[in-house]
């Protein structure tokens, strides 16, 4: 396992991060989830990402239970706040001071820890003044409940504004957590250059495009039983943007490239995002322990310029790169 600094901070994280969105407390049983976490630890992963909204707080509890007994100082635990949780009342969502302060306490209790290494704004809250949000995050850090702060799916302008306020408040905003893969490159035009300038790193989610880049979805063929595309708890909705026969056909043409490198399709996809110098970590999920071992093998893989060019040629116009899609896919107002 290789490790990278998160932003300009002194914190290092494993470049493969284990995440439990859409799995723990939802798609897989708790025993299997625990086995996946143990497989991640055995493979050298030290960084774990979750959020209070995953399975409506249950995923944090499952992760906390799975990590119980591990040396806390040897782990980097990340969680997030914004989306509705609990009974979903008017203050059970967003980035108000009230919701942030109550949410961090709930997350720490469920995770079974006194602090998280990284506390992230899961989306931008247009209904709360940014000054209020950043002051609340700064207070969470000063209370010792989080060591660093980050954001997820914020635009370049939002990151710049949040970073400036955090600096003025004396706390470190060091990370951005966007979707990023061979097929979804919308952060490359604006978010990555802005973050590189500010000393903020990316911790990217969905590096295998919800499983599409594994090659298991063949154009014109029935969906594999039990796959993400058949999951009616949220997975099918997230993957649908890639479930186009023209896209799937191009993905299948990546297989010879992976074979020539001695990599699986999933390993090629994870290795690809890690070639970006602004990416500190790639979040992987798993519904089986063996998936963890496969994805971890992407750590340390170098793809030369010829391979990267070949990938671009194969995918062509199947790639989404419009930077405006970050804002377009974000909520325009607080979700209740």
TrEMBL record:
<protein>
    <submittedName>
        <fullName>Aldo/keto reductase</fullName>
    </submittedName>
</protein>
<dbReference type="Pfam" id="PF00248">
    <property type="entry name" value="Aldo_ket_red"/>
</dbReference>
<comment type="similarity">
    <text>Belongs to the shaker potassium channel beta subunit family.</text>
</comment>
<keyword id="KW-0560">Oxidoreductase</keyword>
<keyword id="KW-0521">NADP</keyword>
<dbReference type="GO" id="GO:0005829">
    <property type="term" value="C:cytosol"/>
</dbReference>
<feature type="domain" description="NADP-dependent oxidoreductase">
    <location>
        <begin position="15"/>
        <end position="314"/>
    </location>
</feature>
<dbReference type="GO" id="GO:0016491">
    <property type="term" value="F:oxidoreductase activity"/>
</dbReference>
<dbReference type="InterPro" id="IPR036812">
    <property type="entry name" value="NAD(P)_OxRdtase_dom_sf"/>
</dbReference>
<dbReference type="InterPro" id="IPR023210">
    <property type="entry name" value="NADP_OxRdtase_dom"/>
</dbReference>
<dbReference type="InterPro" id="IPR005399">
    <property type="entry name" value="K_chnl_volt-dep_bsu_KCNAB-rel"/>
</dbReference>
């Amino acid at each position: 396992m290789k490790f990278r600094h998160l932003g300009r901070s002194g914190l290092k994280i494993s470049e493969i991060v284990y995440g439990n969105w859409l799995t723990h407390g939802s798609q897989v049983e708790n025993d299997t989830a625990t086995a996946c976490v143990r497989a991640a630890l055995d493979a050298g992963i030290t960084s774990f990402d979750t959020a209070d909204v995953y399975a409506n707080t249950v995923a944090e509890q499952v992760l906390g239970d799975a990590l119980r007994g591990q040396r806390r100082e040897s782990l980097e635990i990340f969680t997030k706040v914004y989306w509705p949780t609990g009974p979903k009342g008017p203050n059970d969502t967003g980035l108000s001071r009230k919701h942030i302060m109550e949410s961090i306490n709930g997350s720490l209790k469920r995770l079974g820890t006194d602090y998280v290494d990284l506390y992230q704004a899961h989306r931008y809250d247009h209904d709360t003044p940014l000054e209020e949000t950043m002051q609340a995050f700064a207070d969470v850090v000063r209370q010792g409940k989080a060591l660093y702060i980050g954001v997820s799916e914020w635009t370049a302008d939002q990151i710049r504004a949040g970073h400036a306020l955090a600096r003025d408040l004396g706390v470190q905003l060091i990370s951005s957590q966007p979707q990023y893969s061979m097929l979804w490159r919308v952060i490359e035009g604006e978010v990555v250059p802005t973050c590189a300038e500010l000393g903020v790193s990316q911790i990217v989610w969905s590096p295998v495009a919800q499983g599409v880049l594994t090659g298991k979805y063949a154009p014109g063929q029935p969906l594999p039983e039990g796959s993400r595309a058949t999951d009616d708890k949220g997975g099918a909705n997230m993957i649908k943007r890639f479930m186009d026969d023209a896209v799937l056909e191009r993905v299948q043409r990546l297989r010879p490239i992976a074979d020539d490198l001695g990599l699986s399709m999933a390993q090629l996809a994870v290795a690809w995002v890690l070639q970006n110098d602004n990416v500190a970590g790639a979040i992987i999920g798993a519904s089986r322990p063996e998936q963890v071992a496969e994805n971890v093998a992407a750590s340390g893989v170098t793809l030369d310029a010829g391979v990267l060019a070949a990938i671009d040629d194969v995918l062509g116009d199947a790639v989404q790169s419009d930077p405006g899609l970050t804002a377009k896919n974000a909520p325009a107002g607080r979700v209740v």
